[in-house]
Design a protein that fits this description.
The complex is a heterotrimer of chains A (about 260), B (about 575) and C (about 350). Chain A is mainly α and about 260 residues long. Chain A has eleven helices and two strands, in the order H-H-H-H-H-H-H-H-E-E-H-H-H. In chain A, strand 1 and strand 2 form a beta hairpin. With about 575 residues, chain B is mostly helical. In chain B, the strands form four sheets. Chain B has a two-stranded antiparallel ribbon with strand order 1-4. In chain B, strands 2-3 form a two-stranded antiparallel sheet. In chain B, strand 5 and strand 6 form a beta hairpin. Chain C has seven helices and eleven strands. Chain C has a four-stranded antiparallel sheet. In chain C, strands 6-7-8-9 form a four-stranded antiparallel sheet, with no helix packed on it. Chain C has a two-stranded antiparallel sheet with strand order 10-11. Helix content of chain C is about 35%, strand content about 10%. Chain C starts with about 35 loop residues before the first helix and ends in a 17-residue tail after the last strand. Classes of the chains: A mainly alpha (about 260), B mainly alpha (about 575), C alpha+beta (about 350). Chains in contact: A-B, A-C, B-C. At the B-C interface, helix 6, helix 8, helix 9, strand 4 and helix 11 of B face helix 3, strand 1 and helix 7 of C.
């Protein structure tokens, strides 16, 4: 429909496209690789392979044995869920330091991610990767999830998960293409600025409800193009660009002498 | 035309049905006089004169769609359980207002379209009012005799902000509820009466259960009534004064040049109403706006990222965001929240006072008492144009500050850095904008003088027999020249009062005031470019062309050059 | 203000004093240029056809809208509502734009485009009319005798000035409810009120609160009066003041004022969630920096250091809720907040 509107007011197409580009930049950056670890049981070989991968790719920052340094956190006890979340979203290994680790295409495939997770999980007990059933949105109650999301999550991630700003250049990412497993893992492990939501705070069933709510948002808006779901500011920009832009265009046409 | 014949004083018996109807009406209303006066009333034609029409038409659309919405909306904060089709809300406790908003969106056919058209129309209404006001400001259309109509328009702008605010708060959702909570916080910051004013608005403690019904009455009765009355007055003034016109040949302060109301303007302006409504319908059909089901029913605990008001309130939001907190002080045990009062009351107060009073200030420093019906070209009044741009710059910076979180996420910046930059920019950027705009205006005026004196550059270089080179300039046509010389460059006011009374030698009490006005006048008109006079043009022409006979030979010249 | 020049009345009749020799002469209206449709009958017919087509589009739009309205079902699903809204919007848009564009095209191409000149008249009343107006008013004043009858004048003025009170006083007295602004100082928290999760309402044990977690907290519903429990209207008013954000910090990073050492429990601290700026819920907890950010105006509070303001428009720290644990290990309040929560108001410290 954006394309439709843009074609109709083709005189403003460049401005519209420019704005469109600005509005969706954040969402594009957050494009994820669809790799996803499963909760199948790990073997001793996995741990061994993971240890080798860790030594080659992670130990420079997190230290041998994943005990961390003054700059980096210890990974002892973070659990398989944290590793799967950080690695499958491409946040780890970090490419460069910045306000926070950026989402990028995952560097490791599903098997390697599972092996890394198995290794870190073997160091000390921690949250494990949730089962497929635990994150199945069709089993969740989207209305209950909406209430929980609104109070616990929306202030950072926006009412429908479009993301938002934190202080000093940090931000809460959009959740449009975060997989249910990753959403669950983020809640139990509290990556980076995000607090931890343990099972007493938000129960596993409630977490599934939240996932159901978020997945439901991917259907878009009943009203038409959601304009990035960013609220009144983007609505205002579109009112000026499309609305006032087209109407001034029409006024110029009305005021101009016919040839 | 049958109607005019039918209403003619000699009572010819009308024969056609339309004629008989017109006769019936005229016998009872005397409407023929009005038809005679208005049918061929002349309106000047220019696209910028249609900006106010956009505002008027979006207001009409607001009324049409608003009536539709009131048929289904329940302005009550009574609690109920949502059991409609929206799965993400089923079973939740919601207010009747929220419930009915959802019902009219999801269960009334065309209801969502009307709601979205209504909201888009509200954004366009204020936006077009602002652009219309910019046009009036930059072209000097507020000058005598239109100062009072500027005040009417200014009041309409304020009312439109209130209309928008009271309207988007009605669905009782989390986003607008937090907006009301901010309003409550701002009201409480007002010294002495703040706490009581908060009770006055909310009928007790925030949020209470009165605010939605109260806002509803304000939104559908009080403000639209006032707007309707003032729009009537606004248009009455336009008819009374007749419309202003842009400068050009044959257009003076004593006439108006354009097309007759009937049929050209009826078709153009009437057609434009349908264009505005049609575009709003397309927007309402394709672009979602204010999805309250995403924000959820109001609950004091949640808030979502991107918590902003509609665009026209963003400047207030930005002003609140920019202010450092240290300004809150305690005086004699009483708390004076200057960190809220300054951004939410003082800064908008200054901006709006500037807008409201500007025409009167300009009248005082020009002492121009003539009716001005021909508009200024913005370049010909550099200081006014500069001040207008500076005002807009400040407004835009505040609006940007109100969007700083979205700027931060979309441009990968630190919200703290943006806030710091904008804190300084709010004071520096308007000054820079003023200076640049004024210089650009003066530059354009010099260019105009240059054009009038020497004509268009032609690109044709001619070498004379003596080996001298010159470029042939094509002189301006009379119309082109008239556009560039027909304006008044006001000079600064002479100081009208002496410091001491000449006879008694006492201090003149009016001296200081007169001096201040004179200084203000100097600020406005010190730098000015006078229009070219015929004598200057003649001098320039004798001077410019060493070989006038050569220039005269060029086919493009009209023979007046050098003559 | 400069005193107005007494010799110039604001009648607008005097214009610039410039003699004709000083200024250029107005060249008059530019010549009229004929349009294509004025000169070429074919272009004129083409324009007419275009106008007809535009109006026809409008008719088609309206008819399509009727068809859509009666045939496309409204099933309440996101996709279904979106489809219907889109179809109705497009049809309505074309129905309206057809008329609008058609009318304007007609006016632009086929109606006369010869400009007409109309003279303006002075807005001001002619002097003789003005004199008559003043005379009429003076006669009226004389007739009424208002100038002579001082007491009558006073009585009329008093009556007119006072009667609005008869409407204003009842309105103002009732519109603010009970006017008891002392309510700003009290919330639902009492000694022993258990802390519960928002919005699910489960009481929280101290052991549930792990380091790095953030709990959005409300008073446990069984510990508060029935008339203000969740689901009632009173609850919303009370929740607006009672909401709390609770986190557990590593005791090593937690800085506590001497007099508040016993307000926390084992690194668990609870602060009012209402911003001290203008009252938004301050809810963005950054686990790593221990900063609490308000999404409305970006006031930032340091939870590890008494919720002091580190950035933004708020001045005061968030009020702290003193907490402890009961016999069963549940977190409970020690008392109400010891200062009013939320934005500042004039009498806050009184």
């Amino acid at each position: 429909m954006k394309a439709l509107a843009a074609r109709r007011h083709h005189r403003f197409a460049p401005a519209v496209l420019l704005l469109l580009a600005l509005l969706v930049t954040g969402a594009l950056y957050a494009a994820l690789a669809p790799s996803q670890a499963t909760a199948e049981s790990t073997t001793a070989q996995d741990v061994q392979a993971g240890k080798a991968l860790f030594a080659a790719n992670c130990a420079t920052c997190h230290g041998v044995g994943a005990v961390g340094t003054s700059e980096t956190p210890s990974l002892v006890g973070v659990g398989a869920a944290a590793v799967d979340f950080q690695v499958s979203t491409g946040r780890m290994p970090m490419q460069m330091t910045g306000p926070q680790a950026e989402v990028k295409p995952a560097q490791f495939d599903a098997d390697q991610t599972r092996q890394l997770a198995a290794y870190v999980a073997s160091l000390a007990p921690g949250p494990s990767i949730p089962s497929a059933e635990a994150v199945d949105p069709t089993l969740g109650d989207a209305s209950n999830g909406a209430e929980i999301f609104r109070t616990n999550c929306a202030m950072c991630h926006n009412a429908v998960g479009a993301g938002g700003a934190l202080s000093e250049g940090k931000y809460a990412p959009s959740l449009w293409s975060t997989t249910p497993t990753q959403i669950y893992e983020a809640m139990v492990t509290g990556p980076q600025s995000m607090p931890v939501f343990n099972e007493n705070n938000i129960t596993p069933e409630e977490k599934r409800d939240v996932i159901a709510y978020l997945v439901e948002q991917r259907e878009g808006s009943a009203g038409g193009d959601p304009l990035g779901s960013l609220g009144p500011v983007s609505e205002g920009v579109w009112a000026w660009v499309i609305g006032i832009g087209a109407l001034i265009g029409a006024a110029v046409w009305i005021g101009a002498k016919s040839s | 035309m049958t109607t005019t014949e039918a209403t003619a004083p000699a009572p010819a018996v009308p024969t056609t049905p339309a004629g008989r109807a017109a006769d019936y009406l005229d016998q009872r209303t005397g409407i023929g006089v009005a038809v005679k006066a208005f049918a061929r009333k002349v309106f000047p034609d220019h696209w910028s004169f249609l900006l106010g029409e956009i505002a008027l038409y979006s207001f009409v659309v607001l009324i049409i769609t608003g009536i539709f919405l009131t048929m289904f909306f329940v302005p009550s904060m009574g609690l109920t359980t949502y059991d409609g089709p929206v799965t993400t809300l089923q079973g939740q406790t919601v207010s009747e207002a929220f419930n009915s908003t959802l019902r009219l969106s999801f269960e009334v056919r065309g209801g969502l379209l009307m709601r979205q058209i209504h909201h888009w129309a509200a954004l366009i209404f204020v936006a077009s009012a602002v652009t219309h006001m910019m046009r009036v400001f930059f072209t000097g259309a507020f000058r005598k005799p239109r100062e009072l109509n500027w005040m009417v328009g200014f009041t309409l702008l304020i009312l439109s902000l209130l209309a928008g605010f009271s309207g988007y708060s009605l669905p009782d959702d989390v986003l607008s509820g937090n907006g009301l909570r901010i309003t409550d916080g701002v009201v409480k910051s007002i010294p002495i009466i703040g706490s009581y004013l908060s009770y006055f608005i909310f009928g007790g403690e925030f949020p209470g259960h009165d605010i939605i019904p109260r806002l509803f009455t304000v939104h559908v009765l009080l403000i639209p009534g006032l707007i309707l009355a003032l729009v009537g007055l606004h248009l009455l003034f336009v008819v009374l004064h007749k419309h202003t016109q842009y400068p050009g040949g044959g257009r003076t302060d004593k006439n108006v040049v354009g097309f007759p109301l009937f049929p050209v303007y009826v078709a153009k302006a009437g057609g434009f109403f349908f264009v505005v409504f049609g575009l709003l319908a397309l927007m309402g059909g394709t672009m979602a706006i204010n999805n309250v089901w995403n924000y959820g029913p109001y609950d004091p605990s949640p808030v979502s990222a991107g918590a902003q008001p509609d665009w026209y309130m963003l400047f207030l939001e930005g002003s609140l965001r920019l202010m450092p907190g240290q300004a809150e002080v305690v005086i004699g045990g009483f708390t004076l929240s200057l960190n809220v009062l300054i951004p939410a009351v003082v800064i908008p107060g200054l901006l709006f006072t500037f807008l409201a009073l500007y025409p009167f200030v300009e009248a005082a420093i020009t002492k121009d008492k003539s009716p001005r019906n021909v508009l200024d070209r913005p370049r010909n009044v550099p200081t006014r144009t500069g001040l207008g741009v500076a005002f807009l710059t400040a407004f835009i910076i505040l609006a940007l500050a109100g969007s700083n979180d979205l700027i931060a996420t979309h441009f990968r910046l630190s919200i703290n850095s943006i806030t710091w930059v904008l804190r300084f920019a709010l004071f520096i950027a308007p000054v820079i904008a003023f200076w640049c705009t004024k210089r650009i205006c003066l530059g354009l005026q010099r260019k105009d003088r240059e054009l009038v004196l020497h004509g268009h550059e032609h690109g044709r270089i001619v070498r004379t027999e003596t080996g001298e080179y010159f470029e042939v300039h094509k002189p301006l046509t009379e119309q082109e020249r008239w556009l560039r010389v027909n304006y008044t460059a006001h000079a600064p006011l002479e100081l009208s009062e002496a410091a001491y009374d000449a006879t008694t030698g006492e201090k003149n009490p009016r001296y200081r005031k007169a001096k201040r006005w004179s200084a203000l006048s100097r600020f406005f008109f010190q730098d000015r470019i006078e229009p070219v006079t015929p004598a200057e043009l003649e001098a320039a022409q004798h001077h410019a062309h060493p070989a006038p006979e050569l220039a005269a030979r060029q086919p493009e010249t009209d023979g007046r050059v050098g003559s | 203000m400069n005193t107005p020049d007494v010799t110039t009345h604001e009648t607008g009749r005097e214009v610039t004093a410039a003699t004709p020799a000083d200024t250029f002469a107005d060249p008059g209206l530019p010549d009229h240029k004929d349009r294509l449709a004025d000169k070429d009958p074919k272009a004129s017919r083409r324009a007419e056809l275009q106008t007809v087509i535009l109006f026809a589009i409008s008719v088609i739009g309206t008819i399509s809208m009727m068809i859509v309205f009666f045939t496309v079902p409204l099933d309440g699903t996101t996709a279904g509502v979106r489809t219907q809204n889109l179809a109705l919007g497009l049809c309505l848009g074309f129905a309206l734009l057809g008329i609008g564009l058609g009318a304007v095209h007609w006016a632009k191409t086929l109606m006369s485009d010869h400009e007409v000149v109309e003279e303006r008249h002075n807005v001001a009343t002619e002097p003789e009319d003005r004199e008559q107006a003043v005379a009429a008013l003076a006669a009226g004043v004389k007739d009424s005798g208002i100038a002579r009858r001082g007491i009558l004048k006073g009585a009329v003025v008093s009556a007119l000035a006072l009667f609005p009170l008869a409407i204003a006083v009842p309105l103002v007295a009732e519109v603010g409810g009970d006017w008891n602004i002392g309510k700003f100082r009290h919330t639902l928290w009492r000694r022993g009120t258990r802390l519960a999760t928002d919005p699910t309402g489960r009481p929280i044990k101290a052991s549930d609160v792990t380091i790095g977690s953030a709990y959005h907290v409300i008073p446990y519903q069984e510990d508060i009066p029935e008339d203000v429990r969740p689901g009632t209207h009173g609850w919303i008013d009370e929740k607006a003041k009672a909401i709390v954000l609770m986190v557990r910090l590593d005791p090593a990073v937690l800085k506590e004022a001497e007099d508040r050492k016993d307000w926390s429990h084992d690194g668990i601290v609870a602060y009012s969630k209402i911003c001290t700026h203008v009252g938004c819920p301050v809810a963005l907890y950054e686990q790593q920096t221990h900063h609490l950010l308000c999404p409305c105006h970006q006031s930032t509070f340091d939870v590890a250091d008494g919720a002091k303001v580190v950035f933004g428009p708020a001045k005061r720290p968030l009020p702290q809720l003193p907490i402890t644990v009961d016999d069963e290990g549940y977190l409970v309040a020690q008392s109400d907040f010891l200062e009013p929560v939320g934005p500042s108001f004039w009498e806050r410290l009184k």
